[in-house]
Amino acid sequence: MKIDKDTIWIGGKDLEGDKELIEQAALETSLPAADSPLPMDIDESTSGNRRDFLKILGFSVGAAAVAGCEIPVKRAIPYVVKPDAIVPGVATYYASTFVHDGDVLPIIVKTREGRPIKIEGNSMSSMSRGGTSARAQASVLDLYDIDRIREPYMRNDEEGAEWKATDWASLDRAIQKALSSSSRPVLLTHTIVSPSSLALIDKMIAKYPGMRHVQYDAISSSALLQANKEDFGEALIPDYHFDKADVIASFGADFLGTWISPVEYAADYAERRKVRSLDDHRMSRHFQIEAGMSMTGSNADNRIPVRPSHMGSAIAYLHGKIAGGGGGSALPADAKKGLDVLADNLKAARGKSIVISNSNNKAEQKLVNAINARLGNYGSTMTFAHASLQRKGNDKDLRTLMADISAGRVDALITWGANPAYDTPEAAQFVEKAAGIKTKIALAYKKDETTLLADYVAPIHHTLESWGDAEPKRGLLSTIQPTISPLFTTRQAEESLMIWSEGVTDEVPDYRTFVQMNWKNTAFGAQTSFGSFDTFWENALQDGVVELSGGTELNYGGSASASGITRPSSDGLEISFTEKVGLGDGSYANNPWLQEMPDPVTRCSWGNYLAVPVTFDGDRKFVGYGGVEDDSEVVELAVGDYSISPSAIKQFGQKADTVSIALGYGRSAGGTCAKGIGVNLYPALTVDSDGNTQYYATDVDWKGSTGRKEKYYSSVQYHHTMGVTGIDSESGEKINADEQALADLPVKGFQGSLVNRSIIRRAHADELGEFIHDLQHEREHHQHLNDASLYPGHDELYNQGHHWGMHIDLNACIGCSACSVACMAENNVPVVGKREVSRHHEMTWLRIDRYYYGDVENPKTVYQPMMCQHCDNAPCENVCPVNATNHSSEGLNQMAYNRCVGTRYCANNCPYKVRRFNWLDYTTADTWPDNEPVLVEGTTLEYGADDLTRMVLNPDVTVRSRGVIEKCSFCAQRIQEGKLTAKKEGRRLRDADVKTACQTACPTGAIVFGDRNNPEGDLMTKYASPLNYIALEEVNVQSSVQYSARINNQDKKLEA
Amino acid sequence: MSAPISPVRNPLITGSKTYHQITEDLCSPTERAPNPTWVIAFLISVTVFGFGLFCIAWTIWKGIGTWGSNRTIGWAWDITNFVWWIGIGHAGTLISAILLLFRQKWRTGVNRAAEAMTIFAVMCAALFPGIHVGRAWVVFYFFPYPNTRGPLWPNFNSPLLWDLFAISTYFTVSLLFWYTGLVPDFATVRDRAKGIRKKVYNVLSFGWTGAAKHWQRWESLSLVLAGIATPLVLSVHTIVSFDFATSVIPGWHTTIFPPYFVAGAIFSGFAMVLTLMLITRKVLSLEDYITIEHVESMNKVILATGSIVGVAYLTELFIAWYSGYIYEQFAFFNRAVGIYWWSYFGMMACNVISPQFFWSKKLRRNVTFTFFMSIFINIGMWFERFVIIATTLARDYLPSSWSFYKPTWVEIGIYLGTMGLFFTLYLIFVRVAPVVAIAEVKSILKSSGDQYVKGHETYHETAPLREVHH
Question: Could you say which of A742, A850, A882 has the minimum Cβ distance to residue B142?
């Protein structure tokens, strides 16, 4: 062959193409060089030349640089040996029970890769029927509370010494020694609903005979228990059947929000609020007698405002009307008028009514019992077979204990859950005298006020790490099983008590066994379904609930007299102390979800606000009590000799000359979110002659408004009304006062500017026919206009496959906000903190709008859950310049977070204002920390900046970064899961396969989600109601959410 | 460009200027060392601009949460400032393009500065869409370029995307127009310069020799660009108004917006031209080139456009009432007497009432009065955008979501920063380029120079023919 002169050659023979040489060369290299025109042209895959080298160099440098830019994935460690029960990406559900003092709910815990991330209701429970509360929903976040006590502590002998971390063995030794040397130890708890815990405590008392167990409730039902003890022989709270009541009268009891067992009551109540048939609406009629606007009162058909000190007289007056004998003559005429109407209604519904009261005055509760007895309600709407055990605290016991502590008669005190240094009227006294208690042991979860005083701190498990049981109602048992291994060196409280009382034996090595033994001895014997205990126990754990026959019915054998009721005070300012749906008695205060959840009534978060009454000046202004001009003005007042300066808000429906404010705030310890938020009112509580704590005060000295506004007033709703009426002073006519007040300049607003909006539809139960006629007429008109479009629309596409939609029954929505918290938990919605909320930067995907309407001094309320309406003609979608928000073929309005540039044009163009923008780095997702807002000013707590809090994140939902828009996705991840379930089972998807987080959380079943293309589905059944409407239908955004009108069943004799 | 001399037209160049004098007068500011006033003004402008840059960096570093906008009011000062600056940027093209086509000679005195102002204002405006987004580092998603994401294109339905095209086109054409005009003047400067300056200006003037062919091509290009730019004057603010008009928000969803926005833009643009020119003519002693005639002509445009804007405001009010649609009615009720009533009041007073003073010839020709009016109008036009954006969003459909907006220091800083940028650029401009178009002024000397306008009183004060003409 001829070698090209440009090719490399070796020697003359090579150049000449000497045959021998070439053959030899071929042999040497075994390469096909001999036949190749270019001897150097070898197989490319194994070769490398300068260019390739540079290419590879360039690529590797580039790849290294690109890889270096990525935010590193933290600690993703796969299982070495995969546990059987855990399939990555598949959730595992365990039945358990949410127990927080007297708040009990059977729940299902969703765990992912061994982490509990979401609470669902347990629909097998006849008590909750699958409903949940905001508190239960938020409890999973408590598990990952960064303020948890993570290991045992004890302090040296001398008082005031620093705590030192210790180990369990040393702590147990020290405590056992201390307890043995104590003659009068006391175990102080809130209500304990666990039969096994109570059995264990009994054993402990047997071991330490001088010991006693004191139960109390910070917000107590002591008088109710005492009255029932006297009238029925047992200190039990009856099982109220609100679903069987035609007439409900509540004297101050917030039974839908906070009183005894609100989820259960709400479910029953809603049964009789939903309009099932237009001819016979079967709605109950609800009277609420109260001073401030409670969540329950906001749902009432008739609110009768009375002063707190008049509550007893009101009960006595009603008693007089029902049972004869007079009483309550000192009441003002308007209250009497209301109670007369109530009495007529009750008398017409004998045996089908419920009268309740939250009064903590025994005589008043006995009067209520007498009214119910006279009406024949016991045995029908109020029974004792499954009497409630959710409140057991007797205030008298607490008073005795406090007296004993003051007198130095207590030498050892074990506190478990109870926080007497904060949540009792004697808190200050307790703190002062605590030094006199030789041994103070705290079974504590967080460093709260009482724990800080303790000598020994035994950190306890979260319920989700514990074994246990609960008996919220007689015969209704539920189990608690751990859903995660203990995160820290904590120990279940019961386990500690077992060890300290030397109850750990070979047969009963741990508390789990103790519970099992206890069940074997009690519940197992009381049932007949299972022959073997093991099957029974396994079944109980799996179901989470066991429902037994309950106790015997009790008969009323009491008497009542008005002699012990509260003495009415008819002049001067009065204050009532209330409880919030979120924070309760204050023990929930360190939960950021609950702090950020706006109160349903005031729509304020991160704080308690003094509600002051508001009147219309007849011209164009709403005037607050005592010169309060604007919401959030800091006012000064003294209750007795306790001075406070809370921020005030003008509260519609607050009785004249009364103010109210929630307990549970103003913590001085207990965690970063709890501390320093709001004002503590426990020191203002008083005690009546029976020793019961009173939740109102008449001795109020109003010092006036400072004119200063709270710096970070975290209200999510500035405008509260939609048609609140008042008398115009010029014309003397009734006008919509709020519309009049909308102008900032001294001109009058124009009438109709609020009520003519197509947002809320409401009607009276007796006028449904007329209402529906008008509504249909208006909707037809809107639809006619909407049809006049140039664009063909996409109905053809949506009519195939699925077309998701939602229905919300405004008549069933009570405003409880469980859905709102559930949504935060499910969708990784960040908490933004007080300052950010005050700037209207809250991130909630689902909010509950609250509007007042009707008489200015006693208005009615309507709640409207508002989330992305998934409009099929969405205004947000066409304005997005980058297609980041777009429509799925199933009618979902979707967000592609990665694509979002953050122009906020979509949020501006959303008529429902449901889009939320990540103004700052709320999820700590970017790489520098100085743009993460703190939750509470003055602290360094940034939500989710730590690995512990991040454990609560739902791995199915993207955590959004700064600068992108987010909003309700209709729980897209759940839709996907439901579709897969149906596919795996080879059938068409049913509406029940997909339930959104808000839907499952709702205790009243107000929210229904489903497929609009499934005519047999739950959703389409709901869509058929003529009461339905679409908010802002005439804007033609083609919303996928239908609301059912709010219906009121007011007794028209009480119409103002 | 000469036209027959009309005896009823007042001269546009006074002081009996010769061609050489014109060159001297207009080139000299670029040849002298800057005076202390300029230096102080420049330092202030640069400092303010620097603070603006800091605020922008702060925004991008920390997040839009450093601003006062919220879940209800997603746009506030950012887009208000954007629309305001874009509006200001309208006078330049109008003067250069439309007035050129209409053969308005008075444009020659002010077109250069007005065009420069347009370019600087559009730069200030374009800043806001870029930085108001949550993730400024991905704004390139706006651009329709082939990509590996599908390819994934931007949403051509979105008015924000139309904005992008409208503004970038407008900026490009305005820049070309301005630069084209500068070429012969740069050549003039070059011819007078020495050393490095000569070289620089030589490059800038593209080797202009003043040949007849150059002039011919230059004239043609000017006309072609004017033809292209004329629709842009109308389109840019029309499209900016689409940001609002195509939405569903009451108070935004209005068909009147395009003409109303365009009139408002010209209105504010002329006001800004006046503000600047009145200062410039004073500082650079250009009273002979920017005469009272020029001021009066611009005041007439202001009167006309201001009245159009006023009619638009009243039409909006009428239509809101006439629509019978509660949200629309309330939106306008709220603008007038709601929480932001003062901004509506400011807008009405500055934009509708104040230009009406220009019906008086005396006031139209009063420099001091004009100067204050031009400031008022710019304040009024800023309020107009604030009313449309923040006030409207603050009270839309759902009363539950109504909110309130207050700017933070960061937003104020960015706004001031754009002022700093604008004046920095303008001050540099007056140092490097003739602030009045030399070639164009020379072209009208023989038709509008006072020595040629026979019978004009300033020149022929003692002329015997005076009585004949008057």
Answer: A882
Query: Are A253 and A320 within one domain?
Result: yes
Chain A residue numbers touching B327 (CB-CB < 8 A): 757
Please tell me the distance from the alpha carbon of residue A143 to that of residue A591, in angstroms, as a whole number: 10
Does residue A278 form part of some domain? yes
**ipTM (interface pTM):** 0.91
Mean pLDDT confidence for A947-976: 93
Q: List, for residues B171-215, the tens digit of each pLDDT value.
A: 999 999 899 999 999 999 999 988 999 999 999 999 899 899 999
Structure tokens at A519: 């069940």
Q: Are B141 and A882 an interchain contact pair (Cβ–Cβ within 8 Å)?
A: yes
State whether A776 and A884 are in the same domain: yes
Predicted local confidence at residue A42, as pLDDT: 44
- Please tell me the number of Cα atoms within 13 Å of B177 on its side-chain side: 32
Domain boundary among A342, A360, A386: A386
Residue A358 counted as domain residue:
yes
In a domain, A606, yes or no: yes
Partner-chain residue, chosen from B66, B74, B400, that has the shortest CB–CB distance to A719: B400
**Does residue A815 lie within any of the structural domains?**
yes
Listed by number, the residues of chain B in 315-344 with a beta carbon closer than 8 Å to a beta carbon of chain A are: 326-327, 329-330, 333-334, 336-341
Whole-structure pTM value:
0.89
What CATH number does residue A234 fall under? 3.40.228.10
Which whole-number Å values give the CA distances from A423 to A550, A585, A685, B380, in the listed order? Answer: 33, 7, 10, 58
For residue A905, list chain B residues with Cβ-Cβ distance below 8 A.
Answer: 74-75, 158, 160, 243
- Residue of A602, A654, A662, A601 whose CA lies nearest to A624: A654
Q: What is the DSSP letter of A44?
A: G
Nearest residue on chain A to B64, judged by CA atoms?
Answer: A919
Contact: B160, A839; criterion CB under 8 Å: no
pLDDT at A64: 63
- Kindly state the average pLDDT of the residues A49-61: 74
CA distance to B2, B290, B458, per residue, from B11 (Å): 13, 11, 9
Domain that holds residue A352: 222-386
The CB density around residue A897, as the number of other CB atoms within 10 Å, is 16
- pLDDT at res. A27: 64
Mutant choice from A69, A601, A753, A794 vs B, greatest count of B C-beta within 10 A: A753
**Are the Cβ atoms of B160 and A905 closer than 8 angstroms?**
yes
Residue linked to tokens 């003294």: A638
* Nearest residue on chain A to B140, alpha-carbon basis: A901
pLDDT at B233: 83
Same domain (yes/no): A211, A227: no
Residues B116-135 have pLDDT tens digits of 999 999 999 999 999 999 99
Neighbours of B46 (CB within 10 A): 16
Per-residue pLDDT of A665-695, as tens digits, reads 999 998 888 988 999 999 999 999 889 999 9
B90 contacts B265 by C-beta, under 8 angstroms: yes
Between B439 and A120, whose confidence is greater?
A: A120
Q: How far, in Å, CA of B64 to CA of B28, rounded?
A: 46
From B123's Cα to the closest Cα of chain A, the distance in A is: 19
| Chain pair A-B, CB pairs under 8 angstroms | 191
Looking at the fold, whether A397 and A382 belong to one and the same domain comes out as no
Rounded Cα–Cα distance for residues B161 and B144 (Å): 10
pLDDT grade, residue A352 (50/70/90)?
very high
Residue B144 sits at the chain A interface (C-beta within 8 Å): no
Mutation choice for A interface testing from B61, B69, B71, B72 by most A CBs within 10 A: B71
Question: Smallest Cβ distance to B326: which of A717, A757, A841?
Answer: A757
Kindly state whether residues A178 and A284 are assigned to the same domain: no
Same domain, yes or no: A506 and A605: no
Query: What is the number of structural domains in chain A?
Result: 4
Residues A793 and A872 in one domain: yes
Per-residue pLDDT at B467 exceeds 60: no
Q: Domain extents for chain B?
A: 19-137+177-469
Mean of pLDDT values over B373-402? 93
Do residues A207 and A230 share a domain?
A: no
Of A672 and A86, the structure prediction assigns the larger pLDDT to A672
Taking the alpha carbons of A1029, A1030, A1036, A1041 in that order, is the dihedral positive or negative? Answer: negative
